[in-house]
Amino acid sequence: MSSTSALTQGPNLPSDAAKRVRFIVNAASNLAYFVFSAGLMVWYVPYLVHHLGPAAYGILPLANAVVMQAVMLSDGLNTSAFRFLAIDMGRGDAAAAQRTFNSAAVLISGTCLLLLVLSALCVWLLPAVFHLSTPVGEARFLFASMFLTTIAAIFSGLFGTPTQILHRFDLRNLARTATLAARVGVVVICFAVWPANLWIVGAALLISAAVGLTCEMLICWRLAPQLAFRPHHAQPDRVRDLVGLTKWSTINMFGALLMTQLELVIVNLTFGAEMTGRYGSLILLPTLVTAIAEIVVPILSPEIMARYAAGDRLGIERLASSAVRLVGVGLALPAGIICGFGHPFLSLWLGPAFADLDLVLALMSGHLAISLSTRVLFYVLTAYNAVRVQAFISVGAGLVYLGVALALARWSGWGVASIAAATALVWCLKNSLVIPAYCARVVGLSPFAFIRPLAAPLIGLAAVTLAGRLLCDLYALTSWVSLAAAVTLVTLAYGVGAYALLLTGADRRVLRGAVGRDRSA
Predict the structure, then answer these.
(1) Which of 366, 374, 316 is nearest to 340 (CA)?
(2) What is the pLDDT of residues 140-182, one digit of tens each?
(3) Cα 49 to Cα 44, 60, 172, 184, 206, distances in angstroms
(4) Calpha distance 354→278 (Å, rounded)
(5) Confidence tier at 188 by pLDDT (50, 70, 90)
(6) C-alpha atoms less than 13 angstroms from C-alpha of 53 in its C-beta half-sphere
(7) Which of 16, 57, 351, 414 could form a disulfide with 418 if both were Cys (CB 3.0 to 4.6 A apart)?
(8) Quick one: which of 372, 355, 389 has its CA closest to 472?
(9) pTM metric for this prediction
(10) How far from each other are the two terminal CA atoms of the chain, in whole angstroms?
(11) Transmembrane segments in this chain: where (predicted)?
C-alpha cells in the first residue's frame, strides 16, 4: 500500500451505515474501557489507602494535581498537531503530514526539556511548599515519577493522533488499558513481596508510562507507517503555525486546570496532609462521572465539524441542543446516585470514618450533571474558531474560583466542604450560563438556546438524589447487596421516567438512530 493510500483510507467519507457502525464500535470501546478502569480504580483506591494510610495516600492525588499543570501545554500541543495532521491526512498529502508530524515532535521535545527543568525545581522545593507526612525522599521520587510520566504522555499524545483522525478509538483504548493494567499490576505484585511504600508506586508509574508510549508508537506506525520520526523534516513555518494554535488552547486549558487541579493544593495548604488524603480519596468518583461523559461526547466532534463545513446552522443547533439534553440526562443518574447514596457507599467503600464526607462528595459530583452536559458546545466554538473568547472565559472563571475557594476556606467555617462548594459554584456559572450564552451568540441564536436544555438534567438530578436519600432513610443499606438493590431500583425507575418525561421526540429519534433503529435520525 502506498503512503498516500495509507493516509487517505481512514478519512474517506463513510456511508451512513458505516458511520453508524463506527459510532457504535467507538462508543462500545469507550464504554468497555470505562467499565474496566472504573472497576479497577474503585478497588485500587481503598487498596492504596489501606496499605499506605490516608496521609501517605494523599501525596498521590496532590502530586497529580501539581503535575497536571503541565498538561495544559501537552493538550494545547496535541490539539494543534491533531488539527494540522487531520488536514494533511484528509488531503492525502503524505509529505505534508510527515512535515507536520516532525514539526510537532520537535516542538514537543523542546517543551519537554523546559518541563524537565521546571520539574527538577518543583521536586527540590517540595518540602518547603507542602505539608508532607512521608519521608522527603519518597515524596520527591513520586513527584519526579509523575513528571516523567506526564512527559511520556505528551509524546504518547502525538503518536496517538492517527487513532483519533482515523476514528480508531478501539486501538486507543487498548493502549490505555495496557497502561492502566501495568500501573496497578506492578504495585500489587510488589506490595505482595515488599513493604508498601511510595517508591514502588513511583516505579509503577514509570513502567506504565513506558508501556503506554510503546503501545502508542506501535499503533501509530501500524495505522500510518509514513509518520516516521525524522526531526530533519521539521519546518520552521509549520512550527510557527503549531505554536499559534497551541497558544489559545493552552490558555483555555490553564483556566480549566485552575478549577480542577488546585482543589487538593488548597486543601493541603489550608487543612493539612491528613485531610488531603481524605479529600483526595473522594476525587475518583467525580472523575468517573467525567469519564462517562467522555464515552460519547468526543465522538460528536466530527458530526459538528461536518455540519459547520456544510453551512448547516440549523443542524448544529439541533445536534448541540439534543446532545446537551441527552448527555445531561444521562449524567444525572450517576451524579444523583453519588449524591443520594453517598453516606452508605463511603461507609462500605472506604470505611465508616469517611461516611461524614458525604456532603463534600455530593458537592464534588452533583454539579457535573449540568456542567459536563455542555462540553459538546466546546466543539461548536472550535468549529466557529471562537476559542479566543472561550480561553478568556476559562481563565477568568479560574481566577474567580481561586478567590472564592480561598475566601470560603478561610472565613466560611465549612471546612473542606468550602472547597467543593466553590468548585461547584464556579463550574455551574461558567458551563451552564456563560459558555452556552456565548455559544448561542456565535451561532446566531437566542442566548437561551443552549440553556433551556439544561432544565431536564437538573430535574433528573434532583429526582435521583431525593429518591436515594429517601431509600437511605427508610432502609438500613449496610451491605453491598442492599445498596446495589436500592441503586438498581432507582436506575430502572429513572430510565423509564427520563425517557418518557425528560426527553423530546427529537432526542428519542437521535437515540434510536444511534443504535440503528431509526433511519430518519
Answers:
(1) 366
(2) 999 999 889 988 988 888 888 888 777 788 898 999 999 999 9
(3) 9, 10, 30, 14, 21
(4) 7
(5) very high
(6) 10
(7) 414
(8) 355
(9) 0.71
(10) 36
(11) 23-45, 65-85, 106-129, 141-161, 173-194, 200-224, 245-267, 279-301, 322-347, 359-382, 389-408, 414-438, 450-471, 477-502
Q: How many CB atoms lie within 10 A of CB 512?
A: 14
Selected residue with higher pLDDT from 466 and 75: 466
Task: Say whether pLDDT at 431 is over 50.
Answer: yes
Q: What is the pLDDT of residue 514?
A: 58
For residue 418, pLDDT beyond 60 = yes
Give tens-digit pLDDT for 451-498.
999 999 999 999 999 999 999 999 989 999 999 999 999 999 999 999
- In the numeric block, the cell 470501546 is attached to 29
φ and ψ at residue 520, rounded to 5 degrees: -85, -10
> In this predicted structure, what is the pLDDT of residue 520?
47
How many of the other CB atoms lie within 10 Å of CB of 123? 19
Instruction: Compute CA distances 429 → 234, 370, 465, whole Å.
Output: 43, 10, 21
Write phi, then psi, for 189 (nearest 5 degrees): -65, -45
Q: CB–CB of 162/224 below 8 Å?
A: yes
Q: Is the pLDDT of residue 280 over 80?
A: yes
Q: Cell digits for 151? A: 512527559
Q: What Rg, from alpha-carbon coordinates, does the chain have?
A: 23
| 8 A C-beta contact, residue 233 and residue 98 | yes
- The neighbour count for residue 349, using CB atoms within 10 Å, is 20
Residue 14: per-residue pLDDT: 46
pLDDT band at 187 (very low <50, low <70, confident <90, very high): very high
CA–CA separation, 219 and 214 (whole Å): 9
| Residue 124: other Cβ atoms inside 10 A | 11
pLDDT value at residue 394: 87
> Which of helix, strand or coil describes residue 53?
coil
150-58-190-43 Cα dihedral, nearest 10 degrees: -100
Q: Distance between CA 96 and CA 73 in Å, rounded?
A: 24
DSSP run (H or E) holding 176: helix 169-193
Percentage of residues in the chain having pLDDT higher than 70:
88
Burial of 170 (0-12, 13-18, 19+ CB in 10 A): middle
Count of all residues that appear for the chain in the document? 521
What backbone torsions phi and psi does residue 341 show, to the nearest 5 degrees? -110, 20
DSSP string, 365-424: HTTHHHHTTTTHHHHHHHHTT-HHHHHHHHHHHHHHHHHHHHHHHHHT--TTHHHHHHHH
- The set of residues, in sequence order, having a beta carbon less than 8 Å from that of 29 and lying 6+ positions away, is 169, 170, 173
Cα distances (Å, whole numbers) of residue 268 to 120, 359, 416: 21, 19, 10
